Amino acid sequence: MSKKLKLTFCTGVDTVTGADYLLEDETSSFRVLVDCGLVQGEINADELNNAEFSYDPSTIDVLFITHAHLDHIGRIPRLIEAGFKGKIYSTPPTKDLALFMIEDEAHILAHSKNDAVKEIAKIYSEENIKKMMACWETVPYHTPFKIKDLDVNFKISGHILGSALIEFMYNGKKIVFTGDLGNSPSPILPDCEFINDADYLIMESVYGDRNHEMRDQRKIILEHTIQDAIKARATLMIPTFSLERTQELLYEIDDLVSKGRIPYVPFYLDSPLAIKLTDVYKKYDDYLNTEAKEMVKKHNDIFAFSGLKIVGDAEESKNIIRMPNPKIIIAGSGMSSGGRIVHHEHNYLPDPNNIILLTGYQSVGTLGRYIQEGADSVNINGQKVLVRAKMVMISGYSGHKDSDGLLQFVEAMQESVKKIYTVMGEPKSSMFLVQKIRDNLGLDAYAPTRGEVAWLEC
């Protein structure tokens, strides 16, 4: 007997952040969410994040989480504050990582100078975080489980530690939410799994309209950029995401150091969050790829190397400026939208001898995007800061599949898929990918808008 599932694109469309999708069986009043993330980097992000949900959180039975980035988990405390009393499901590493990510966001909000933001911080209370963790259950990859009429399976997406593609089987039809698809092969994670029998696909499109440079080039560019900074006796700043990008960089720098490709130079890991998250990577080394597991057996700690200095409190961070060049600073956030990297950019961007290395996507409106686009000056904490440092970009370190990779992912299910929805991308990226899928594969692809509803025939 044919049934219909109602899919609402609450947020996470027309933009690269804010994943939040409602899937409901109206005949049985069964409602599930896939992700509940913050909108980040947009001018009206605070307004969107503080708005009431477009659904009643108290009526949601289950929240499924694809991975632990804030744009996929950041609004969970608000969901709980608004009455959510259901279960949360993810892989085990995602739960552990999510706790640190949410606690860090709570700390940032609580220490804001903006009174309105401080009010928001109350929602990220210790009590709400405890409630979040108490209702959170974990299921490993490839361990199917059933919730009412939904059969659920987490598969490897290769984006960050524990990140999952979510397969739902409902009335004989397979619905797949990609979350974020990893830019496989990764230095440390297993490859993203391909699915060949999906009926409906809700897929990310961050890089829907462009490709990364070849993967073998990214490590070469990293090596050359570090060598250039050393030769120039400069400061190299690497704004990086605390989760995944930092761990990948540490792993690759460790390899360069151990092989004598770069000489001794002080590396400052100036990110308390990244330090905590790296410990989770160590805990779940069975979720790493085969090569990384072998490295763990040989060297135990694959995220440490000669010259790496772990920076603890804020005072230590401030003292880095007193340290002689050359030096390399790795700090969050990856888009320079906050965190300790902003303090270092204030100090080092005006010097043309210095280098800033961008290692991933820079969202519209972020400080990183302005630097990437060649701004002569930027505003940092209310002050005009000249941008004279050399800018180097390595898109190959992105944690997302590029345009060709996304097309290949869809191609694997070409014989089965009935409809593809592109989400989590700027409009031009989502629309480009839609057209690319139509032109190359002849499939029915569509870029929904915020609040739009789709009916899935099952």
List keywords for this structure.
single chain, 458 residues, alpha/beta, Metallo-beta-lactamase, Chain A, Rossmann fold, 2 domains, 7-stranded mixed beta sheet, 15 helices, 32% helix, globular
Descriptive notes:
There is one protein chain. This protein has 458 residues and is of the alpha/beta class. It has two domains: 4-210 and 399-457, 4-Layer Sandwich (Metallo-beta-lactamase, Chain A); 215-397, Rossmann fold (3-Layer(aba) Sandwich). Helix content is 32%, strand content 22%. The chain contains 15 helices and 22 strands. It has helices spanning 45-50, 70-73, 76-81, 92-110, 115-121, 126-134, 215-231, 245-258, 272-283, 290-299, 314-319, 341-348, 367-372, 403-411, 427-441; strands spanning 4-11, 20-25, 30-34, 62-64, 87-90, 136-138, 145-147, 150-156, 164-170, 173-177, 200-204, 235-239, 267-269, 308-310, 327-331, 355-358, 377-380, 383-386, 390-393, 419-423, 445-446, 453-457. The strands form four sheets. It has a seven-stranded mixed beta sheet with strand order 6-5-4-3-2-1-22. A seven-stranded mixed beta sheet has the order 7-8-9-10-11-20-21, with helices on one face. The protein has a six-stranded parallel beta sheet with strand order 14-13-15-12-16-19, with helices on both faces. Helix 14 crosses helix 15. The model has no long low-confidence stretch (mean pLDDT 92).
Shape: globular
Judging by the overall fold, what is the CATH architecture of the largest domain? 4-Layer Sandwich
CATH class identity of the largest domain: Alpha Beta
Structural class: alpha/beta
- Global Rg: 22 Å
How large is the share of residues in beta strands?
Answer: 15-25%
What would the CATH topology of the largest domain be?
Metallo-beta-lactamase, Chain A
Biggest β-sheet: strands ordered side by side in the sheet: 6-5-4-3-2-1-22
Poorly predicted residue ranges = none
Span of the ends, CA to CA: 9 Å
Count helical runs.
15
Mean pLDDT: 92
**Into which percent range does the helicity of residues fall?**
25-40%
Question: How many strands, what sense, and barrel or not for the largest sheet?
Answer: 7 strands, mixed
Tell me the number of strands: 22
Number of domains: 2
Write the CATH homologous superfamily of the largest domain: Ribonuclease Z/Hydroxyacylglutathione hydrolase-like
